[in-house]
Amino acid sequence: MFKKEFTPGAKSKVKSSAQRAIRAKVVETYPLIEPYIDEVLPKKEQLDLVKIPDRVSLYCNGGTPLFWQHMDDPIVPHLQLVHKYPWCFTRVRIDRGGIRFVLSGATLMVPGLTSPGGRLPGGEESEEWANGGKEIEAGDVVVVDAEGKENACLVGVLKMGTKEMKEKKKGPAIENGHYVGDGLWKLDLS
């Protein structure tokens, strides 16, 4: 979705009532962020809405991008926010072989998650790892960690649930995600 660099469009201030609704939606979608919501979306600070290409809305606090949303799709955190609060989001992990494809903008495929280096919830390490061992459904927002790397490399919406991924072991897992080095990552809001 953000493969190419682009310039931000119109910037407008979000009304306080809409800001409360966004705040509630973020807490509903990402319950683990609730203790940090006042740091992420302070009540007294102005939230800005920046229009970017392909009908995407980017919510910012000053020059800091926080969340983006494509039309009526789920609200998705920006990777800078994910790197600051990694424990607040549902995570999966890709193997080393999938990293270069993700960072070149390719669709994340299921084999990168089901191979020995990948991790999905429900495996032997799942209790302390991703989502407390619960399966993740299609349409849920996930953060993708990379094997052997400290920070997440991709955030996006799952195309199929993790249970189905384990059964099929093929097909697209995440399309149109936001990854390190894409246009949204390089966007200058100053």
Automatic annotation (TrEMBL):
Domain of life: Eukaryota
UniProt cross-references to Pfam families, sorted A to Z: Pre-PUA, PUA_elF2D
GO molecular function: RNA binding
Entry keywords, A to Z: Cytoplasm
SUPFAM superfamilies: PUA domain-like
Gene Ontology BP annotations: formation of translation preinitiation complex
Alphabetized Gene3D superfamilies for the sequence: 3.10.400.20
Boundaries of every PUA domain copy: 90-181
Subcellular location field: Cytoplasm
CDD domains, per database record: MCT1_N, PUA_MCTS-1-like
GO cellular component: cytoplasm
Family named by the database record: Belongs to the TMA20 family.
Entry function: Involved in translation.
Name used for this protein in its record: Translation machinery-associated protein 20
